[in-house]
């Protein structure tokens, strides 16, 4: 466990992607009274001076300016105001300086375009929202763009796919710093399944699907509290009064993977927790 993971700085900017911004605050800024060890320190850093208007109309003021990035151990870029919008030079300079001294980065969705514009991703494997991958690869041919994964951990830089994949990327960093057990406890407080692996494919919908998630959420909760039981697709389908085919379609539509794959990932996550605690998975 990293006993002191240091200062996390999340960027705010005019045109802010508020969902991606909220992910960072929820994971890193929320007080964690459930833990008996120090959590991250967190600050919001304004790219622009004065009030900044988020994409959903919310206006916010940041307590700190770009100079605070010189103190940050981890910098989070929660999207960007436009893939074709060049980041301001002061931001680029601050990011380059932070990278040179070893600061870590997480980009969520289109936030990777900011690091790419700063010129610090050459030869690095990255990802972004599947809709932007081709654009990113064409504009920056020296970057290795992987369109199929939820997030990529390249060591100093973690890049995530669209929006909600940012949760997985942030939880992955928590896992690196504090271990899988702590990351999964944070996930449970978020009322979500354990952190998904980065190699899981992004879900690209082919046809409109009504995402009726209540039944799936109940089923997932039941499974997660009884992972030692036998859970075939047939048994899962019976629990929610669906046909097996419908259940598989719903899982893929909502989670991007079939139920058997999700179950395997949940059990692997539990096994990692038990190994960290010195137990076994039997």
UniProtKB/TrEMBL annotation:
SUPFAM superfamilies: Class I glutamine amidotransferase-like, Homeodomain-like. Residues 217-282 form the HTH araC/xylS-type domain. The keyword Transcription applies. It holds the Pfam family DJ-1_PfpI. Keywords: Transcription, Transcription regulation. GO terms for molecular function: DNA-binding transcription factor activity; sequence-specific DNA binding. This is Transcriptional activator FtrA.
């Amino acid at each position: 466990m990293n006993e002191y993971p240091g200062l996390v700085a999340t960027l705010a900017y005019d045109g802010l992607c508020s969902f991606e911004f909220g992910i960072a605050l929820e994971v890193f800024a929320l007080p964690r009274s459930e833990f008996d060890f120090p959590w991250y320190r967190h600050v919001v850093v304004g790219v622009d001076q004065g009030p900044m208007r988020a994409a959903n109309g919310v206006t916010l003021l940041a307590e700190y300016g770009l100079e605070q990035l010189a103190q940050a151990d981890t910098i989070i870029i929660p999207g960007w105001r436009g893939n074709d919008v060049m980041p301001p030079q002061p931001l680029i300079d601050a990011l380059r300086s932070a990278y040179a001294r070893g600061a870590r980065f997480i980009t969520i969705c289109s936030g990777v375009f900011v690091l790419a514009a700063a010129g610090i991703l050459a030869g690095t494997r990255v990802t972004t929202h599947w809709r932007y991958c081709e654009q990113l690869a064409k504009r920056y041919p020296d970057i290795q763009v992987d369109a199929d994964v939820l997030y990529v951990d390249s060591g100093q830089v973690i890049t995530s796919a669209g929006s909600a994949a940012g949760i997985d990327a942030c939880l992955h960093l928590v896992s690196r710093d504090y271990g899988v057990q702590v990351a999964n406890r944070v996930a449970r407080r978020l009322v979500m399944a354990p952190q998904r692996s980065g190699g899981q494919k992004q879900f690209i919908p082919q046809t409109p699907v009504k995402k009726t998630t209540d039944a799936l959420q109940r089923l997932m909760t039941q499974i997660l509290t009884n992972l030692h039981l036998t859970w075939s697709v047939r048994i899962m389908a019976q629990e929610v009064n669906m046909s097996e085919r419908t259940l598989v379609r719903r899982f893929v539509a909502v989670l991007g993977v079939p139920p058997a794959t999700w179950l395997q990932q949940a059990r692997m996550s539990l096994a990692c927790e038990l190994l960290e605690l010195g137990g076994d998975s039997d």
